[in-house]
Amino acid sequence: MDISEKTYKVKQLAKACGFDFCGIARAEKLDEEARRLEKWLSQGMHASMQYMERYFDLRRDPTLLVPGAKSVVTLLKNYYPSATQQHEAPKISKYAYGKDYHEIIRGDLTIFLEQIRLFAGDVQGRGFVDSAPVLERAWANKSGLGWIGKNAMMINKSAGSFYFIATLIIDLELEYDTPLAKDFCGTCTKCIDACPTEAILPGKVVDARKCISYFTIELKDLAIPPSYKNKFDNWLFGCDICNDVCPWNKFSSPHQEESFSPMVEIIDFTKKDWEALTEDAFRKIFKHSPLKRSKFAGIMRNLKFLRD
């Protein structure tokens, strides 16, 4: 089997394993992207997310994650829901409607690598999904899957930005896709204009210190600054504003992943239901949900901030 046939087979397997898009790039250092990250960190825009400072060299060089790595396979998995919440309820980001995507996609990646080994032999590799020092959006761009929008999200021209990004780094040589050189955002500034906390800055930069998603998910054990009162647009966990207003998301279509189907509680809960929620009930209902990242205390803090 030559490289071309192997590449075709890998992309076929990606589809069979439940991924919607697959792109492949040569495993090499991301020097330009590393410089951008270093500047972002030096300006303190990662707020209290100190984990972003760790393993900097690993973020830049995939061969430090997988010795002998030759290919970085980037995979997109749609999470756009077929149903949304009640209009007046505190808002939950769409990516968190179903089960925790980390658990689901890790399983998909494991099966994907096993299937590659069945036809390609002893392939060494590791799969990652949003929990390791990997610059996923940079690799998605290098793999020709999309471009980085003004809101720093990766946008696919045919399907928008409601996608999880997963990465498989392997020591198998494959054919590499052409990076998408053009930025199709043009002069549009809808995401910048719509952000109620002005977190989206020129240059495709998001300042986490102003971001609703940061405050409602990543900010731990601290009060939300009172200066942001009445600016959260009723977001309880995460925020979809910049995605919702993006014209490219008119191409979004409902996903086919059963595990991402909206939980009844998230779709049906009213404000009163959230306020009446006990810690025991929270742990039971959201045991396999992304909401567990904020924990019960964080959700109650966010709810109080919206209510008071």
TrEMBL record:
It is found in: Cytoplasm. This is Epoxyqueuosine reductase. Monomer. The keyword tRNA processing applies. Belongs to the QueG family. Gene3D superfamilies: 3.30.70.20. It comes from Haoranjiania flava. Transmembrane segments: none annotated. The lineage of its organism: Bacteria, Pseudomonadati, Bacteroidota, Chitinophagia, Chitinophagales. Residues 176-205 form the 4Fe-4S ferredoxin-type domain. Its EC number is 1.17.99.6. One of its GO terms (cellular component) is cytoplasm. The active site is at D130.
